[in-house]
Design brief:
Radius of gyration: 25 Å
Number of helices: 4
Largest sheet: 3 strands, antiparallel
Strand content: 15-25%
Bound molecules: zinc ion
Number of strands: 5
């Protein structure tokens, strides 16, 4: 293991990270996997190289508390993201049989329900990214379907 003192281009924030080797650092740096823990900038450069392998025992033990792979950006871990998505997909799969397919009328139908012009119902259908954004702006709850469905009118 080797520790590098790194700094970001955006804010010149200094932080340290451990890597398996110098090559491992170069590889992660090239792929933008290293992010500044302060501002999240991924333009990271080596500040001062400080190999501490075999460091003297008077080193503060707190100095090696940083994990080998930098994940101090506050982002949820990929495992957590996968878990949450899987839970949402399962919930949607459960709800789909009760949901009414409205095809391309989805945005209109959702808006009509939101404004009380139509009966509250569970619906699913198609919306363009623009329509989805408009619904979000108007506070109308809609979310992308995470389970594959065959639109009933797609077989025409
Ligand atoms: Zn920074």
């Amino acid at each position: 293991m080797i520790v590098f003192d790194l700094c970001c281009a955006a804010g010149d924030h200094r932080f340290e990270a451990w890597f398996a080797s110098s090559d491992s650092f170069a590889d992660q740096q090239a792929r933008g996997l290293i992010a500044c823990p302060v501002c999240g900038d991924s333009a990271i450069a080596k500040a001062v190289m400080a190999p501490r392998v075999g460091a003297k025992s008077n080193q503060q033990s707190g100095a090696i508390a940083k994990p080998a792979e930098v994940s101090a950006t506050g982002e949820p871990s990929p495992e957590l993201v996968r878990k949450v998505i899987a839970e949402i997909a399962a919930k949607q799969a459960e709800m789909l049989p009760q949901s009414r397919w409205v095809g391309r009328d989805f945005a209109d139908a959702a808006r009509a329900m939101h404004e009380g012009r139509a009966k509250e119902d569970l619906i699913h259908g198609q919306a363009s990214p623009e329509q989805a954004a408009e619904l979000r702006e108007d506070g109308i709850a809609a979310m992308p379907l995470l389970v594959p469905i065959a639109p009933p009118d797609a077989v025409n």
